[in-house]
Design a protein that fits this description.
Layout lengths: L7 H7 L26 H8 L14 H14 L3 E5 L2 H9 L8 E5 L4 H8 L8 E5 L4 H7 L4 E7 L1 E2 L4 E2 L2 H11 L3 E4 L4 H4 L9 E5 L13 E5 L12 H4 L10 H5 L3 H14 L5 H12 L1 H20 L4 E5 L9 H7 L7 E6 L2 H11 L4 E2 L9 E3 L11 H6 L6 E5 L5 H15 L1
Parallel strand pairs: 2-3, 2-4, 4-7, 7-8, 12-13
Antiparallel strand pairs: 1-9, 5-6, 8-9, 10-11, 11-14, 13-14
The structure holds pyridoxal-5'-phosphate.
């Protein structure tokens, strides 16, 4: 054997998997089982004590899901990962060990619409709250953090697109405050951006998007860098003190850099039950094998179409951080040097009416509430994903009424251009 491979393309195919020990099967089998037979009573007890790593029940762990967890952890450069049932589940799973009633998070205003809603309304049911701040205003981010803040949350490349977060500047602030930075890396993928290298403690994903890559799976992941010192303050008692939910185990003391990951499985998945199914994990493992190839094609198509759209007479603006005209061009070169993703927004001179006509006139682009598919997709955020937001919030999130979002797929670029052109002409 050579040294542990480091190349992203190699890791995307090999990390976390080996030929099946039971059968030699080369591809990761779908372990479609709920439970696992214990060797004997001592083995069962050791598993429940986390003294031995193994399988008990598929709400907690499953070999197919485990292979995916290891592969994603390797791609992000993390110590461990926990997969779960969706991207939104991953966000709750990331916050759960950190939070408690009366505690808050500080999050960017530029977020996926569903995340904005989850953080504005739903987390209040747990007694948690969120303060939203413009993450380009570093003083405002600092000022929003108080003694009850337990995490800072942002997206690397923000959905609906065109905005890149200065992760180095934000992680310097969260470090100073002694709290973790959580980065949603869904729209960038670890191929384009490695948030842990820019100071993130936790990385969350919607696997539903580029990682699976063909619109077949709903899934999520939480990756832990393993670098945060949970015991440096009394802010994170679930990790640094005896955890009453797990017979008094001190996770940080017992498991070191794997404390967060094991807590996510032993308490988070056990009690919240947001488990990923093995079939979904298998699809995602296969999707990740081609992630580098797909991302290169997504990028090339997105760059070509964004530049062309910018010159189209029906278009007043294109927000894509890969364009020379983008205010985030230099930041993109630092945070995601291979490219700024394949998701961007286009503002039409004809306003709201033109947007809906444009969406309806497209043929190759599918009108769906998804992104990161091999197929090109379109949506009008103001009337769909960002509908729950006020007009001011829509504008702050980059989802103004005269704006459509494009998720550029990996089809032939000339066909995509022709489709966009005829729909823009039809929209007037
Ligand atoms: C889709 C998405 C989510 C939510 O993921 P689901 O898998 O749909 O729950 C969160 N963040 C971003 C950036 C997304 O694009």
């Amino acid at each position: 054997m050579t040294d542990t491979p480091q190349d992203f393309g190699t890791l995307a195919i090999h990390a976390g998997t080996e030929p099946d020990p039971a059968t030699g099967a080369r591809q990761v089998p779908i372990y479609q089982t709920t439970a696992y037979v214990f060797r004997d009573a001592d083995h069962a007890a050791a598993l429940f004590n986390l003294a031995e790593v193994g399988y008990i029940y598929s709400r907690l762990t499953n070999p197919t899901v485990g292979a995916l967890q290891n592969r994603i952890a390797a791609l992000e450069g993390g110590a461990g990962a926990v997969c779960c049932s969706s991207g939104h589940a991953a966000q709750i799973m990331a916050l759960f060990p950190l939070m408690g009633p009366g505690k808050n998070i500080v999050a960017s205003t530029r977020l996926y619409g569903g995340t904005y809603t989850q953080f504005t309304h739903t987390i209040k049911r747990f007694g948690w709250s969120c303060t939203f701040v413009d993450f380009d205003d570093l003083d405002a981010v600092k000022a929003a953090i108080n003694d009850d803040t337990r995490a800072v949350f942002c997206e690397s490349i923000a959905n609906p697109g065109g905005y890149i977060t200065d992760l180095d500047a934000i992680s310097a602030i969260s470090d100073e405050a002694g709290i973790p930075l959580i980065v949603d890396n869904t729209t960038a993928t670890p191929y384009l951006c490695k948030p842990i290298e820019h100071g993130a403690t936790l990385v969350v994903h919607s696997l539903t998007k580029y990682l699976t890559g063909n619109g077949t799976v709903t899934g999520g992941a939480v990756v832990d860098s393993g670098k945060f010192d949970w015991s440096a303050s009394d802010k994170f008692p679930s990790l640094s003190e005896p955890e009453p939910a797990y017979h008094g185990l001190n996770f940080h003391e017992a498991l070191g850099p794997m404390a967060f990951t094991f807590h996510g499985i032993a308490v988070g998945l056990r009690d919240l039950g947001m488990t990923m199914n093995p079939q979904g994990a298998h699809y995602t493992l296969m999707g990740i094998e081609t992630l580098p190839l797909r991302m290169e094609k997504h990028l090339a198509n997105a760059k070509a179409l964004a530049s062309w759209l910018e010159t189209h007479p029906a278009v007043s603006a294109v927000t894509y951080a890969g364009l020379g005209s983008s205010p985030y061009k230099e930041r993109a070169a630092k945070i995601c040097p291979k490219g700024a993703g394949a998701l961007f927004t286009v503002t039409l001179k004809g306003g709201y009416e033109a947007c809906t006509k444009f969406v309806e006139s497209l043929n190759l682009f599918s009108h769906v509430a998804n992104l990161g598919d091999a197929r090109s997709l379109v949506i009008h955020p103001a009337s769909t994903t960002h509908r729950q937001l006020t007009p001011e919030q829509q504008i702050a999130a980059g989802a103004a009424p005269d704006t459509v979002r494009l998720s550029i797929g990996i089809e032939g670029v000339d066909d995509l251009k022709a489709d966009l052109d005829q729909a823009l002409n039809a929209a007037g």
